[in-house]
């Protein structure tokens, strides 16, 4: 989404002038606890909070928060597994999950799992500290358990904090099966729950308010242009009154091409614009200058309506603003023609005074264009600064932030707003991990105080690993944005605070980067030089979910920083870069490999692929009591060989202890090797790992032969988080430890989880399109032709179409197997049927050729004929049905299911009709031949007529 008018507004100071996945709106109505909760099998009196997570009250959540850890109880009317997730956004991505079920021996099993995306959540490495089971039950159609969770997560990406003083997203899934797998449709949900007493503005739900009024802003109908990106603007007059207050809002159903809605307040609107009221929207956005600069509200994918808490209201009226501009962004990548839309937004308001007037402050990159993201990176950051000269304009006692809406596009991953006060960073205003484009919402805050003179740094982090070209900031959905809209009280005149790039020109009073402050009383923003844009403070690095652990050792100077990564539950790696090495760009670094003795060998490597990587293998020594470290390299996918040029040594603490191999390693030239280099200051350093389980190697030979790996993966390390300490072994006396995790085991072993949600969706769509093309178009067409037409060469036309259809199906099946393997769907009926059809249809051309030759010889159907014909018919119909199963498995939108069902149904009717017609035609021809055989026609003429019809008649028996 974008405030498109800012690009025009800022153009006078510069020299340079949200794909379509539209999620259905869902109400977040908080279901109140049922009066009758006697079915819950544990003691409910121990908790001080309770809410139903579903509308029927069949999934109940209980909680009691405390300082260090909190206790949660969850119960569902289901007889299988029950999963409860702590989520940042209400999405699966990044969710820290508690799962309970019974195993085959009737024992209750409790697991801590983590979801890296919309894939099967993996078991987290920490099964002891983060969550601890207190009791579990499963009987009489009810599953329930109580567990304790740390409020402050350890520095693992598989954990999440508990928002004990504010609002927390909970997601859940239930089943009647005890095998943990994907839930069936409808057996899941999400709820934004207020655990603490922190103040907020947005309830992220719609509710009625007594003694209020409604009004709706309606954009006049527009025919959406065929351009990929369109912004339309329509002006509207607000309800009359000196001072009214918005209390709630609800976006209404609109076109699926709608990317976002934004409503701007028009302060001091020039008279020449007022004629726009009631007129058709102006969709010539490149030539239109939006004069309205105050942010009122917006809708983006995933959002529903919201209602302000009692006592809060956004003021409008003659004392504030009387007009608003509605901006609609349409994204039409398929360039559809003739699509019409009438966008609208409904508001609840009152003309009575409220206790607290709230305003909205816009942070982020208002310039929109002129910046680029580096491609091919798992995380790349973009930051803007709001300077003290602007925040000094706040009231003397400051403002209180109560909610923030972070916005990016499809590549967005993390976002934050840092607070710098008196030159020091304090607790951030907001941090959001695991951003999901389709799950956007207004994040409630615990009343964060902001003071005049504060410096605010807004940072967005993106995944550009699937991009090969720099990613621009811009208006189109395929470009990127970085915004943070902060709701606060008391409302004041400051609307936006950020920085802009003015370029370099003799005509500019200011060149380069400048600060920007926009107030409601100003016709244009105030742009000025600021020393705070070049302050010595450095932005936090793009470090994913890494975080420092508090130092428990006092009085230690020059402390070492160690990164610890466990890409798999029992395989871990650590890294330290001494301060001197990082400063000079070369020198010693230290790393550790650790794994159970059940592994034959384990390797850590620098690089992005096996070929030419700088590898370090660990395996057991000849006496079985120590480990051998073998630096190696390989020029391709072959057994790597010892690299004598590597300067490495094993350090104290290496060996085999408690059935675990550990290698503490010093490397003196790991910044550069024969086939590559690594910057010791790289925030996105690429590493690989591999291993093979089996018998110990037990060799001191650094070139000992090894078996091929049975597991491998890759991750990135932010070396700035591993920098510190002197040139000593950090693993025997590390004072400060910073811990992070690389992708989970599943992600390391399968590339599906590394793809962005957008790319995954494209794979799914391509699979569905190709499979539908094969079974709903090509295969039926080839069969229909031989039933309804007759021409020379029809047999070969039929065969060619069916072979082409099979080729298309092979492509679809390849994508499907890749997807199913990545999300553990290979056991689903859709996948099983698809693979069966893939195997059966492979033999169909060969059986068809045999059938055709035999038929021409004997002039009647044989076993080959029936095998080819009826297997093909059943296969095509089954393939059409399987397409519907695929849509169900993918939880496709209802519109897609309807379109596919109608089209497949029509083709199916035509296909079956052609079969019936062909069989009737064949029966008539058989009767005619039988009659002809008893007539006066000579045998030679009868045979000649049958042979002459083989171009069509024989081909009639060559169809599926």
UniProtKB/TrEMBL annotation:
InterPro entries: Cellobiose_DH-like_cyt, Cu2_ascorb_mOase-like_C, Cu2_ascorb_mOase_N, Cu2_ascorb_mOase_N_sf, Cu2_monoox_C, Cyt_b561/ferric_Rdtase_TM, DOH_DOMON, DOMON_domain. This is DOMON domain-containing protein. Its main location: membrane. Residues 930-960 are annotated as: Disordered. It comes from Lithohypha guttulata. Residues 57-175 form the DOMON domain. Residues 939-948 have a biased composition (Basic and acidic residues). Keywords: Disulfide bond, Electron transport, Glycoprotein, Membrane, Transmembrane, Transmembrane helix, Transport. It comes from the Eukaryota. It holds the Pfam family Cu2_monooxygen. SUPFAM superfamilies: CBD9-like (SSF49344), PHM/PNGase F (SSF49742). The chain crosses the membrane at residues 769-791, 803-825, 831-851, 863-885, 897-917. It is found in: Membrane.
């Amino acid at each position: 989404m974008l405030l498109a008018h800012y690009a025009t507004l800022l153009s006078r100071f510069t020299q340079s002038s949200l794909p379509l996945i539209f999620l259905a709106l869902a109400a977040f109505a908080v279901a109140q606890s049922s009066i009758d909760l006697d079915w819950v099998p544990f003691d409910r009196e121990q908790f001080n909070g309770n809410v139903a997570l579903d509308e029927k009250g069949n999934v109940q959540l209980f909680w009691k928060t405390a300082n260090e850890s909190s206790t949660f109880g969850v119960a569902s009317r289901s007889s299988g597994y029950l999963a409860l997730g702590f989520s940042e956004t209400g999405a699966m991505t990044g969710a820290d999950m508690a799962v309970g079920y019974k195993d085959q021996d009737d024992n209750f099993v409790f697991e801590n799992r983590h979801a890296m995306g919309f894939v099967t959540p993996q078991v987290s490495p920490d099964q002891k500290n983060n969550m601890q089971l207190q009791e579990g039950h499963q009987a009489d159609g009810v599953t329930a358990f109580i567990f304790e969770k740390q409020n402050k997560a350890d520095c693992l990406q598989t954990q999440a904090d508990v928002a004990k003083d504010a609002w927390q997203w909970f997601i859940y899934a239930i089943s009647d099966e005890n095998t943990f797998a994907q839930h069936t449709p409808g057996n899941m949900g999400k709820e934004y729950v207020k655990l603490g007493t922190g103040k907020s503005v947005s309830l992220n739900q719609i509710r009625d308010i007594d003694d209020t009024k409604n009004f709706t802003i309606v954009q006049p109908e527009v025919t959406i242009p065929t351009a990929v990106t369109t912004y339309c603007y329509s002006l509207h007059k607000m309800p009359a009154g000196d001072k009214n207050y918005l209390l709630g809002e609800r976006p209404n159903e609109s076109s699926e091409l709608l990317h976002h809605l934004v409503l701007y307040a028009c302060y001091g609107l020039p008279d020449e614009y007022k004629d726009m009221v009631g007129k058709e929207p102006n969709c010539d956005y490149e030539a239109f200058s939006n004069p309205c600069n105050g942010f009122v509200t917006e809708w983006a994918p995933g959002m529903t309506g919201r209602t302000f808490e009692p006592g809060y209201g956004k003021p409008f009226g003659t004392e504030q603003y009387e007009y608003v501009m509605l901006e609609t962004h349409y994204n039409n990548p398929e360039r559809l023609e003739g699509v019409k839309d009438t966008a609208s937004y409904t508001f609840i308001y009152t003309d009575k005074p409220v206790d607290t007037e709230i305003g909205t402050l816009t942070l982020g990159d208002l310039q929109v264009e002129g910046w680029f993201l580096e491609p091919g990176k798992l995380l790349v950051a973009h930051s803007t600064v709001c300077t003290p000269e602007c925040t000094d304009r706040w009231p003397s006692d400051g403002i209180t932030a109560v909610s923030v809406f972070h916005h990016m596009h499809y590549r967005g991953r993390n976002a934050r707003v840092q607070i710098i006060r008196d030159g020091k960073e304090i607790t951030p205003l907001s941090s959001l991990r695991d951003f999901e484009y389709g799950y956007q919402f207004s994040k409630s805050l615990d009343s964060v105080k902001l003071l005049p003179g504060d410096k605010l740094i807004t940072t967005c982090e993106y995944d550009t690993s699937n991009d090969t070209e720099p990613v621009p900031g811009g208006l189109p959905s395929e470009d990127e944005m970085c915004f943070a809209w902060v709701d606060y009280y008391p409302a004041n005149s400051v609307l936006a605070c950020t920085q802009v790039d003015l370029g370099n020109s003799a005509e500019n009073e200011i060149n380069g980067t400048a600060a920007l402050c926009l107030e409601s009383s100003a016709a244009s923003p105030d742009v000025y030089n600021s020393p705070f844009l070049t302050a010595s403070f450095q932005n936090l690095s793009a470090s994913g979910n890494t975080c420092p652990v508090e130092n428990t050792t006092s009085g230690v100077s020059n402390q070492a920083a160690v990164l610890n990564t466990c890409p798999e539950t029992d395989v871990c790696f650590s890294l330290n870069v001494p301060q001197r090495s990082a400063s000079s760009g070369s020198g010693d670094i230290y790393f550790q490999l650790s794994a159970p003795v059940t592994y034959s060998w384990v390797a850590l490597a620098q690089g992005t692929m096996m070929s030419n990587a700088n590898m370090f293998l660990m395996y057991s020594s000849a006496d079985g009591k120590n480990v051998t470290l073998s630096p190696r390299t390989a020029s391709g996918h072959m057994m790597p060989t010892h690299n004598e040029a590597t300067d490495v040594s094993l350090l104290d603490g290496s060996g085999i202890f408690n059935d675990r191999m550990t290698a503490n390693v010093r490397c003196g030239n790991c910044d550069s090797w024969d086939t590559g280099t690594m910057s010791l200051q790289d925030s996105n350093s690429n590493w690989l790992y591999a291993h093979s389980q089996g018998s110990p190697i037990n060799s001191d030979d650094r070139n000992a032969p090894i078996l091929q790996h049975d597991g491998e993966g890759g991750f990135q390390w932010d070396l700035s988080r591993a920098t510190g300490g002197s040139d000593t072994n950090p693993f025997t006396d590390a004072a400060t430890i910073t811990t992070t995790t690389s992708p989970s085991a599943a992600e390391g072993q399968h590339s599906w989880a590394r793809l962005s949600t957008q790319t995954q969706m494209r794979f799914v769509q391509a699979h569905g399109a190709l499979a539908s093309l094969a079974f709903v178009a090509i295969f039926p067409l080839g069969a229909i032709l031989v039933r309804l037409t007759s021409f020379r060469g029809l047999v070969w036309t039929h065969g060619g179409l069916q072979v082409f259809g099979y080729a298309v199906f092979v492509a679809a099946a390849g994508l499907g197997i890749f997807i199913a393997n990545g999300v553990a769907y290979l056991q689903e009926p859709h996948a099983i049927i698809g693979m069966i059809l893939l195997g059966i249809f492979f033999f169909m051309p060969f059986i068809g050729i045999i059938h055709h030759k035999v038929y021409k010889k004997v002039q009647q159907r044989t076993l080959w004929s029936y095998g080819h014909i009826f297997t093909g018919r059943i296969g095509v119909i089954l393939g059409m049905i399987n397409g519907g199963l695929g849509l169900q498995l993918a939880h496709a939108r209802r519109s897609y299911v309807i379109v596919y069902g109608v089209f497949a149904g029509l083709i199916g009717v035509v296909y079956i009709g052609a079969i019936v017609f062909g069989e009737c035609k064949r029966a008539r021809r058989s009767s005619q031949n039988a009659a002809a055989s008893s007539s006066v026609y000579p045998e030679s003429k009868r045979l000649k007529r049958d042979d002459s019809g083989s171009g069509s008649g024989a081909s009639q028996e060559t169809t599926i």
